[in-house]
Amino acid sequence: MNALQDFFNRLLGRNKTDVPVPVPAPLPDNLDEPAQIVTLKVLAIIYDPILDAASGEKLSQRMNWNRPEDLETAFASELIEVSGGMARIQIVQRVEVNEFPDLIDGFRYTPAAYLDVLRGVSQPHKPTDIDYQKILSRHRILQRVSRAEIDEVWIFGFPYAGLYESTMGGKGAFWCNAPILKNTQSCPRRFVVMGFNYERGVGEMMESFGHRAESILAKTFERLSGEANLWLRFIRYDKVTPGKAEVGTIHFAPNSEYDYDWNNPRKVHSFCDNWYTFPDLSGPGRLVNASEWGNGDLRLHHRWWFKHIPHVAGRQNGIHNNWWWYIMDANNVGR
User: Fold this and answer.
1) Alpha helix (H) residue ranges in 190-284
2) pLDDT for res 30
3) Could you check whether the bond before residue 127 is cis, i.e. omega within 30 degrees of 0?
């Protein structure tokens, strides 16, 4: 279990020497509290640089990569399905920026320099990180989140754009698979900025969202220990808890031996089916292997994983039985 606890701490961005921050007393348990649908109002920012001013050809067109609009639609549909209808997306505005973004040191690729990187002629610029502060300022994100015009931001970029898969800002922000966004504490609401790559597909979007879910649920359950910490139970896999696997993590299926090992034929005993009858977790379990989650197909594994996340009525130990309430809106953590 030490390995699992270490993983839990990493989800919180916590070092072994960190002192836990006090959290509010939990709300009373309630068996009848309904599961609530959460609809996120999303600002989508698409960086699709124009490579040829004369023709107007964009990077996505030149490389024959995915259309961000298609990815948005497909991913939103996946979320509705895997959450049992609890997680919904509303794109309130889509902004296309036809230029390369500034990186943290002020560097900006030219079309020729970027294409040289893709061809392997030159190395990617370092430091690689995008300048989030310029994006926040340019699109008035703190002000718009404060006024509840938007709840979060999705940035669509390309290889070497320098985006985190997810990061969080606002008052009370916490580790969300990346450091907290600086200079955002003036915003009274927490908000997540997702980073997606339109060279990739919906499966990779689900993985990024899975890491976001891992961080947020780790924070949601951090005050609970032992068997009361149901998130620590959910992420058990056989390698770290032999014979006691549950659903695993977004990287580790119940029988995985290493990260991304989603095609392992080895059968292990798992209690994963019990999460379909949550909060009743008393089932005996059974033997499972990769045939359950798509035999190595990334998107199918992630769909299988998300479908096990509880989304039913009630509250226990102060935490909703609908975990999507937290995954979708980090402002609900601690409430």
Assistant:
1) 202-220, 230-234
2) 84
3) yes
